[in-house]
Amino acid sequence: MSLLGIDVGQTGCKVVIFSNYGDVLSSEYQEHPLICPRDGWVEIDPNLIWNNIKNLIKTANQKVKNDKVRAFSISCQGETFTPIDKNNDCLYNSVVSMDNRGKDYCKFWENELGKEKIFHITGMPLHPMYSINKMLWIKDNLKAVFKNTKKFLCFEDYLFMKFGLIPTIDFSMAARTMAFDINSKNWSEEILKSAKIDSSLLPQARHSGAVVGEISSKIADELGLGKNVVGVTGGHDQACGAFGSGIIEGKTAVNAIGTSDVLIPVLEKVCLSENMLKNNYCCYPYVLKDKFITLSLNLTGGLLLKWYRDTFCYEEKETAKSTGKDVYQIIDETIYGKPVNVFVLPHFIGSGTPCLDSNSRGLIIGLNLETDKSRISKAIMESNAYENRLNIEKLESIGIVIKKLVAIGGGAKSSKWLQIKSNVTGKKIVTLNNKEAASLGAALLAGIAIGDFRSPENAVKATIHEKNVFTPDDKITAEYNKRYSIYKEIYSVNSDLLHKIAELDD
Hints:
Blueprint: E1 2-8, E2 12-18, E3 24-31, E4 43-44, H1 46-62, E5 69-76, E6 81-84, E7 94-95, H2 105-112, H3 115-122, H4 131-141, H5 143-147, E8 151-154, H6 155-162, E9 168-170, H7 171-175, E10 180-181, E11 186-187, H8 189-195, E12 204-206, E13 211-214, H9 217-223, E14 230-236, H10 237-243, E15 251-257, E16 261-267, H11 274-278, E17 284-285, E18 292-293, E19 296-298, H12 302-312, H13 314-323, H14 327-333, E20 343-345, E21 363-365, H15 373-398, E22 402-408, H16 415-425, E23 428-432, H17 437-449, H18 456-463, E24 466-470, H19 474-503
Parallel strand pairs: 1-5, 5-14, 9-12, 15-22, 22-23
Antiparallel strand pairs: 1-2, 2-3, 4-7, 6-8, 10-11, 13-14, 15-16, 16-18, 16-19, 17-18, 20-21, 23-24
């Protein structure tokens, strides 16, 4: 019997059916568009997500007719939520984390509770991305929608509802709303009272790996599934990706290179120190009981490369069409061979950690008449690696030691990019036998819940193995050290100017 992992990302959905050895039996993916009705607004059509998920499951299941799915779990993007009415219909599009409508509510929270108190309750440094801020925006600006809202659901709990189960959110996803008390593992009465949002509008919260229930035979038949298929709570995609990469203890961190570029170390206990808050590092429940994670975040990892592809790489896209190659592979093959003297500040939708400055903007600096696309594409990859190093240094100064990185996500397909990262950070980087880390992490949680694995350690040992290893080249690292010292100054020297540019957007 097999296990199903569902992964709902910002730009696409994936369903993967795994054997109990972690082998991919069937995998299906479907992109979905981001909807931008106004500058700074970013949404997804939740009905499209459900239709895509249904079609993907049907297609994937047809390929494993002799190995029926016994249980499933869900990995999904954080913060994104949808208002649902009493008939379980969507009242509005899903509001995505990068949507900036929560921006003005940061001032409200500063005055109401203060960023220190919010951090010690929720584990989240105050920022517009979190769901509670956009719930407030809906309450203040879409009064009819708010009045008719029975539940605000993130994609995990939304999908459980669509499967005919009780809408249930796991602790890791609940924390990404900035309305959850990570100490008591309950919705925060204090946060919700300040927001004037009743806790009845939020789903029930349970630990990851909890059985939610069996889906009905009607829905199972519609999806081509067998009888008695069990739904199990999953987690935030970053947390599921870490577990699906085999991370169950400290000193090894996942580098998830997707739309965003994220470092994910596991913590043995809650860490809510002054330096964590100062550097804008969150702390919230992991998908394993009594453990926590933090994240460093570069908001534009693969997203920046996608922008570059769509804006400047017409010839590469045409070559991809004629040769059948992936366009990113063509970009990868043509990047400049040496470290470049062009620098990209990747704050194209604001910065990630440690400064978490939503008013910052992107910058390309160091251009001359020799600058060509091969150097620009190399500079984009290097900027990503510089951001990794900056965050690793900050985390290690707090006491969170990172000796090795496990690379997952679309960016992990590029051996050149991973070697750049290793050279810049000075860290060993490995890839895995299975590239579907988030989906696998969700599937393993499902497998543990129904007794297919004795423990998380047993699940990891049975399914996850290292594949490729990248180690730093000392000579090239020395060259990057010179450039990194320059890179660290770019934001601080230019931040005032970038903020003035951001003001023009208002």
